[in-house]
Write a structure and sequence with these properties.
heterodimer; A: about 110 residues; mainly beta; seven-stranded mixed beta sheet; four-stranded antiparallel beta sheet; 11 strands; globular; B: about 110 residues; six-stranded mixed beta sheet
Chain lengths: ~110, ~110
């Protein structure tokens, strides 16, 4: 079992640049979650998908953030244009919904916007 | 007031000590998660429980639904237990996890 795979592990870029974070969920899982972790706010849900459909994006901070899930095995989180306050660790998690199942987290992407 | 609160925020103990981390929540939940995050950053799900008690090795998690309180215990603590422990309330209806702020545990050899 490969687990949830995120890329890149680290990203450093200048403000104003477009940033794309990628996630491959565990095969067979039907729900995918994007989280952001900062020192000030801890872990926060940004958006989650069920069966590739966005269900709740109320945590997406603003229009600069967008997320897609074109198929069951791939999702992206895009920030355009990026700002220094977007610096954080972004986690992707997946699970099978249909019962109480734990979420499996990726190793995260540490994003630094200069 | 946060919907999920943990205590203590920081805990330092000697190797071998019995550790207790507490979590109180004010939201309705379907289950309570305990997560572990090591320096390095990866997050691992330790337990998911909706009643009673679960045990895995030296780790024990309990929950009291009436009192909206859960505890994570570590017996015979070891330096490799040093990590941030996060509790999260899970709502089956909207699939959301609401996270506590975490407890940073340091076990000194």
């Amino acid at each position: 079992d490969a687990g949830v795979i995120q890329s890149p592990r680290h990203e450093v870029t200048e403000m104003g640049q477009e940033v794309t974070l990628r996630c491959k969920p565990i095969s067979g899982h039907n729900s995918l979650f994007w989280y952001r972790q900062t020192m000030m706010r801890g872990l926060e849900l940004l958006i989650y998908f069920n069966n590739n459909v966005p269900i709740d994006d109320s945590g997406m901070p603003e229009d600069r953030f967008s997320a897609k899930m074109p198929n069951a095995s791939f999702s992206t989180l895009k920030i355009q244009p990026s700002e220094p306050r977007d610096s954080a660790v972004y986690f992707c998690a997946s699970t099978w919904t249909g019962g109480n199942q734990p979420q499996h987290f990726g190793d995260g992407t540490r994003l630094s916007i200069l | 007031k946060n919907e999920v609160e943990q205590s203590p925020q920081n805990l330092t103990a000697q190797e071998g000590e019995f550790i207790t981390i507490n979590c109180s929540y004010s939201v309705g939940i379907s289950a309570l998660h305990w997560l572990q995050q090591h320096p390095g950053g990866g997050i691992v799900s330790l337990f998911m429980l909706s009643s009673g008690k679960k045990k895995h090795g030296r780790l024990i998690a309990t929950i009291n639904i009436q009192e909206k309180h859960s505890s994570l215990h570590i017996t015979a603590s070891h330096p490799r237990d040093s990590a941030v422990y996060i509790c999260a309330a899970f709502n089956f209806g909207n699939e959301k996890l609401t996270f506590g702020t975490g407890t940073r545990l340091t076990i000194i050899p």
